[in-house]
Design brief:
heterodimer, A: 307 residues, alpha/beta, Rossmann fold, four-stranded parallel beta sheet, 10 helices, 9 strands, B: 138 residues, mainly beta, Alpha-Beta Plaits, elongated
């Protein structure tokens, strides 16, 4: 059974096809309004999430399908000690597709192994979050019209930021990409991500701690939050959380067509004053995420022979 | 130092100096009801120093464990005091239930019944990563 746990589970051709499907959904929503009629999405969220769960649910409703939800791990059978595998097997009896978020890394992989229906990883700890990357890709496509020949700045927590790792992997498949990696020394991109997705493909990159001096050459600036939940030590979190705060004065020398992105939620790393700047794309990402989740649900249900 | 030669058993030779004890533990040789010798820091013309393990019992070893600890080690099978087989060792593509993932955020940390599986991610650097969370083996 085909599932999507990591962005690397999707080929470049599949990414391109998903983008085209999402664009078609945007242009012809009525064509898809009953595409999943009578089908059920199970959202299994073992840790809190507003955006991703609602996005999946909205996506399924807009495809004419239904949703059954487990929104709180504490009140589920998991709190009684049920394994992820058993939960996945059980839910396979009720639904046609699963979207799952779990605090433990690798949980979605375990669920996919056990389930008899497709599983979409909606985030497994600090590991993978492929549908956020799909949202990011559609945003880049709609803003820039291409994936090649872009200078992409990634700023903030590049160490624990799963969205950053996945986006780098996805964009590294296209020609003419250059990465500018902006982070404090303690939150640098892990060496294995650099090796596998950048160095092995001879992609040019710059590593810096200085956001302002990097901004002028960027086509895309992808800001990230320093995530409290990824730190074992509160002191480290407090020391690093305000490393980068994007304010209007820092954009003085930025390109006129810069796209400012953020996977959200933000805390203070992008000033609210930037929200009205036409270069701010982070709320567009949210909407694009729903369209890409619709495209992915359609793809997986079709491949499973369910629709 | 003299260690008796064995009649029927296995000699793991050319183990990188310092790796012998780890190999002894991962092969669970302490549980064997047979003579086992772990010799550390043996002088070697080729390696300078090396470790050797001699097992005086006709047992089959998990070669994946040896390949993981030191793919350059050699395994010699002795029968009736004669070397009968030299086994070649390579780094295994997959390690199952040999080492444990140390990432406290890994699903294997809370679901004990799951197999501990590691995949060879970088042969040149002898790097293995957890199948579930992709954390590097330490």
């Amino acid at each position: 059974m085909r599932s999507v746990i990591d962005i690397v589970d999707l080929t470049t051709e599949e990414l391109d096809t998903l983008i085209q499907t999402a664009v078609d959904i945007i242009e012809n929503p009525q064509k898809y309004a009953d595409a999943c009629h009578g089908k059920k999405l199970a959202t299994l969220f073992f840790e809190p999430s507003t955006r991703t769960r609602m996005s999946f649910e909205a996506a399924m409703y807009e495809l004419g399908g239904n949703v059954i939800s487990m929104t709180d791990g504490a009140s589920s059978s998991a709190s009684k000690g049920e394994s992820v595998s058993d939960t996945a097997k059980t839910v396979s009896c009720y639904a046609d597709i699963i979207a799952m978020r779990h605090p433990k890394e690798g949980a979605a992989f375990v669920a996919a192994k056990a389930a008899s229906i497709p599983v979409i990883n909606a985030g497994d700890g600090g590991h993978c979050h492929p549908t956020q990357t799909l949202a990011d890709l559609l945003t880049i496509y709609r803003e820039k019209g291409r994936f090649n020949n872009l200078t992409v700045g990634l700023c903030g927590d590049l160490k624990f930021g799963r969205t950053v790792h996945s986006l780098i992997n996805a964009l590294s498949r296209y020609d003419g990409i250059k990465f500018v990696l902006i982070s404090p020394d303690e939150l640098k991109l892990p060496s294995y991500v650099k090796r596998d997705s950048i160095k092995s493909k001879n992609i040019p990159y710059i590593q810096t701690t200085d956001l302002e001096s990097a901004i002028p050459e960027l086509d895309i600036l992808y800001m990230t939050r320093v995530q409290r939940e990824r730190f074992f030590n509160e002191e480290d979190y407090l020391r690093l959380k305000d490393s980068y705060i994007l304010t209007p004065d820092k954009l003085v020398n930025a390109k006129a067509d810069l796209s400012i992105m953020h996977p959200l939620p933000r805390v203070n790393e992008i000033s609210v004053a930037i929200d009205s700047d036409p270069r701010a794309c982070y709320f567009k990402q949210v909407l694009n995420g729903k369209y890409m989740r619709m495209a992915l649900i359609l793809k997986l249900l079709k491949e499973a022979g369910t629709i | 130092m003299n260690i008796d030669s064995i009649q029927n058993g296995v000699v793991i030779d050319h183990i990188k100096a310092g790796c012998g004890m780890n190999l002894y533990e991962l092969l669970n040789l302490g549980a064997l009801d047979a003579s086992v010798a772990l010799i550390k820091n043996v002088q070697s013309k080729k390696m300078g120093k090396k470790d050797i393990i001699k097992i005086d019992a006709d047992i089959s070893l998990n070669l994946d464990v040896i390949g993981y600890v030191d793919p350059d080690a050699t395994v010699n099978v002795i029968k009736n005091g004669v070397l009968t087989e030299k086994m070649s060792i390579d780094m295994p593509e997959t390690l199952v239930n040999v080492i444990k993932c140390k990432n406290p955020r890994c699903i294997t940390s809370c679901e004990q019944e799951l197999d501990q599986v590691f995949k060879l991610s970088d042969k040149e650097n002898k790097e293995y990563r957890c199948l579930y969370c992709e954390t590097k083996a330490r």
